[in-house]
Amino acid sequence: MTFALSPLWLTLIGIVAARQLWIYFVCAMRLKMVHDAGQLTRGQTVLGYSALVEGLVLDALFHFIFGTLIFLELPARKEWTLSARLWRLSNGPPSWRQRLALKVRKGLLDSIDPSGVHR
Q1: DSSP characters for 97-110?
Q2: Membrane-crossing residues (predicted)?
Q3: Residue at 116 is within a domain
Q4: CA distance 40 to 115
Q5: What is the DSSP letter of 76?
Q6: Which of 66, 81, 90, 111 is at 20 to 30 A from 4, Cα to Cα?
Q7: Is residue 31 part of a domain?
Q8: Could you tell me if 28 and 55 are in contact, meaning their C-beta atoms sit under 8 angstroms apart?
């Protein structure tokens, strides 16, 4: 018996991974706010940074697998996160990729980022 992912399973895995990646992003942005305010405790640092590592691993995997499938392109050189790809595409030439990247950034990321624009 061979193991193959059907398009349905791949879609479901992608949806669950995207949701989890967004949760890690929200966590990271809140940690950034607490850190910038000088209120990050030792316990928050230990738990928070371990969550950041988990989130970065998920981000890289999602970026290389699902980002490639969604945007129909390989990541650019030295582009390790989905955020980097979204930033590059949303500031690139007008195309369907730019419109999609802007939609994701503005709909899910920019308002969560303390700076107001997620880079």
Answers
A1: HHHHHHHHIIIIIT
A2: 46-72
A3: no
A4: 19
A5: P
A6: 81
A7: yes
A8: yes
First-residue to last-residue Cα distance in the chain: 44
**At residue 110, what are phi and psi to the nearest 5 degrees?**
-55, -45
Domain count along the chain: 1
- How many CB atoms are closer than 10 A to CB 55? 20
Question: How many angstroms separate the CA atoms of 90 and 97, rounded?
Answer: 8
Q: Interhelix angle for 82-90 vs 96-104, to 10°?
A: 120
Round the average pLDDT of the chain to a whole number and report it. Answer: 94
Query: Which pLDDT value is given to residue 3?
Result: 62
Q: Which residue range forms the structural domain that includes residue 39?
A: 7-109
Task: Count the residues in the chain.
Answer: 119
| CA gap 66, 18 in Å, rounded | 9
Decide if 33 is inside a domain.
Answer: yes
Burial zone of 50 (CB within 10 Å; 0-12 exposed, 13-18 middle, 19+ buried) = exposed
